[in-house]
Amino acid sequence: MQAIEIKPGIYWVGAIDWSLRNFHGYTTSRGSSYNAYLIIDEKITLIDTVKAPFRDELISRISSVIPPEKIDYIVSNHVEPDHSGCLDFLIHHCCPNATIVTSTPQGLKGLTSRYGDLPYKTVKTGDSFSIGKRTLQFVATPMLHWPDSMVTYCPEEKILFSNDAFGQHLASNQRFDDENDLHTVMEEAKKYYANILMLYGKQAQSALAALSKLDIEIIAVGHGVMWRSHILDIIAAYEKWSEGELEDSAVVVFDTMWESTRKIADAIADAFTEKGIRVHFHDLRVAPFSDVITDILTSKYLAVGSPTLNNQMLPPVAGFLCYLKGFVPKGRKAFAFGSYGWGGQSIAQVDAELKAAGCDIILDPIRIANIPTEKDLADIREKIKNL
Ligand SMILES: Cc1cc2nc3c(=O)[nH]c(=O)nc-3n(C[C@H](O)[C@H](O)[C@H](O)COP(=O)(O)O)c2cc1C
């Protein structure tokens, strides 16, 4: 497999995971890539590695440029195994002279606990060193999205090696934003931010402030395609998402056994539509949680529905609310709804979970016994109309 030269002497040597459909629970319908970069200079430097099963692809691409034993530094921007997964193999079998550059204290701690005592060099924000004609500078980006996370900047090339920041789970053989459909790239970047970074808006803003001082021509991300023509677009999007800016749209999400809760969901969606509000409609029998969270990232309204099953909400709704709670979606105007047979406990449970998630409850829970009548549905429409 061949390396792809992205600037003279700088190569993409990562791996493309075309078949990936589930990345620790995140539904990756367009696959992903694990990006690693090779810089040929007096000190040959590899930026990040790939997920362990893709080791041969990484080594093959490196070998298309230089023998791997010539590598002097391997910068590990992030401990998570989709980036660090080949470090120990490379050091023990391919790159005997290499030193691993990692953040202190968290990167060192994380790599040591995973891979043991390897030759490490630690760096922190403001540190830099020369690799010949070029310099590498380091900026810690803690909690974007693990405590150890950092980015590496090369001022002579104006490249920011951003690891998980600005990434997308997107498999493509074309490495840059302008070679791909921009709408698809932005959609996947939003999904990535929502599911990986949404909880860390404050940290994202600190990182954006630090990175705004850099002159950047290429953002060489850890997943998906690099940014070179739409850098301002992705930075503007990160500013908007990290500030929690919401659009006049509503997410209606539910599960159902016999379609009564679905009928309520339809009435809610109709009523929002009549108000001129865009609706994202998610039936949890088919909708992946990660798609629902992507729409919640920018939506002002959230309606969550479940019928009652054995005094509980349906398990997919419970799972979804557990996932949602982790993101603390403060500021969403939310309410619960559902159909029931006798006790109807599920609806109060959904309401309590939405409160626990930090949502503002704007309607008493909508509870309908058995099948909703035309009058029930008209009453629901009226309530939404009056919001
Ligand atoms: C296996 C099963 C268990 C149920 N348990 C309860 C229950 O504990 N409490 C209750 O109020 N209704 C219970 N129901 C009734 C449903 O909540 C009711 O039929 C409701 O209208 C179903 O809504 P849906 O059409 O959206 O699935 C149960 C129904 C089934 C099939």
Automatic annotation (TrEMBL):
SUPFAM superfamilies: Flavoproteins (SSF52218), Metallo-hydrolase/oxidoreductase (SSF56281). One of its GO terms (molecular function) is oxidoreductase activity, acting on NAD(P)H. Coiled coil: none annotated. InterPro entries: Flavodoxin/NO_synth (IPR008254), Flavoprotein-like_sf (IPR029039), Metallo-B-lactamas (IPR001279), ODP_dom (IPR045761), RibonucZ/Hydroxyglut_hydro (IPR036866), Rubredoxin-O_OxRdtase (IPR016440). Residues 250-387 form the Flavodoxin-like domain. It comes from the Bacteria. In the N-terminal section; belongs to the zinc metallo-hydrolase group 3 family. This is Flavorubredoxin. It comes from Schwartzia succinivorans DSM 10502.
